[in-house]
Specification:
Blueprint: E1 2-6, H1 11-27, E2 32-38, H2 43-49, E3 54-57, H3 67-91, E4 95-98, H4 104-113, E5 117-122, H5 129-134, E6 140-143, E7 158-160, H6 167-171, E8 188-192, H7 199-211, E9 218-222, H8 225-234, E10 241-244, E11 259-262, H9 266-275, E12 279-281, H10 291-301, E13 306-307, H11 315-325, H12 331-342, H13 348-363
Parallel strand pairs: 1-2, 1-4, 2-3, 4-5, 5-6, 6-7, 8-9, 8-11, 9-10, 11-12, 12-13
Helix pairs in contact: 1-13, 3-4, 7-11
Length: 364
Amino acid sequence: MKMVITAGGTGGHIYPALAIIDYFKKQEKDFEVLYIGTHNRMETKIVPEKNIPYKGIKIYGFSKKDIKRDFLNIGYIIKSYNELINIFKEFSPDVVVGVGGYVTFPVILAAKKCHIKTVIHEQNCIPGKTNKFLSKGVDKVFLSFKESEKYFKKGTNLVYTGNPSGDSVLNSKSIKKETLGFSSDKKFIIITSGSLGSSTLNKKLIEFLKLSKDEKYEVLFITGESNYETITKNNKFSKNIKVVPYFDNLSHLLSSSDLIITRAGASTISEIINAKVPAILIPSPYVANNHQYYNALDLYNSNKALMIEEKELDSNELYKKVVELLKNNNKEYAKIKNNLLKEKSINSSEIIYKEIKELINESK
C-alpha cells in the first residue's frame, strides 16, 4: 500500500498522523508513505526525525490583517497545487489522508484532481473551515467526536473513529512515575498546556504551584520549550515540583498520574479517555471556533472531567479544588474516575486502517 498523509501546524494534527503511519507500518509489509507538510512549522523537524519521507510545501494560513500576504498565499497555493499533481503522478498513492491544518487544502484538492481516493480526519468537536470545505468531496470523513456529525452536510460519509493520538496509551508500555524520581506513596499531578505551551496559562499555574509548596502531592510541570527558560529563571519551586520544558511520550506517563491539569486539545482528550485519568481542563480561548471549549464541554457534560475557563481561572480556587479532589475517598473525584472507566476505549488507528483498506479494495 502507498499512502500520502498530510497534516501540519501543531501537535494536535501531527501526532494523530504519526499514529496512523505507525499502525499502517505494522499491518502492511510493503507500506510506503510520503508525509506532506508545510515548509516552516513544527512538522518539518518532527517527521524527518522519525525517518519518514517528507515533502514541505510553501503555504501559509490566511490572515484577516495581512491582506498582502493573503494575496501572495493564493499564488503559493496554486504553485503548490501544480507541484502536488506532479508528485502524485510520480508516487502514485492508493490513498491520500488529510489530518488537519491548512496544508491539507491543496493536497486533498490535487489528489481529487488525480482521481485518488481521499479521506480526512477531524480531531475537534467543532470542525475547522478547511475540513468542512473538503468534506464535500472526499470519500470518507473520520471523526474524533460523535458530536461533530451535526456540523457536516447530510450525505457525507462520516465514520466515528476517535482520535489516533490516544492509541499510544493502549498500545505502549506505560512509564512509571518512580523512574522520574517521584514517590510511590504520594499523589501525582501532571500540568501541561499543549505541544506549544501557553505563556498566559503558565503565569496563572505558577501561582498555583507556589501555593502547592510542600503539599503531599507531587507535580510534573511541563512549560513548553518557549516558556521554560523564563519560568525557571524567574521562579523557584519546592522539591515536590519538577519543571521540564517538554516530555516526550507523555501519553505513556498518564496512567501513573492521579490528575492532569491541561488544555483541551483533541489529542489530549483522547489520551485522557484511554488513560482513565481525571482532569481539570482549561480550554484555550485563542483557537479557531473556540473548539477547545467544546472539546472540554463534551467531557464535562458527561461528568468525565472538570472544566475551568481561562478567564475564570483563579490560582487560590484551583489550589483549593486540587487539594479537595486528591483527598482520599473524595466523591467528586470517584465519580469522574468511575465514568472514565465506563467509557469504552477504542483503537482509532485500527478503525481507520479497516476503513481505508475497504475504500482501496472497492476501487480495484
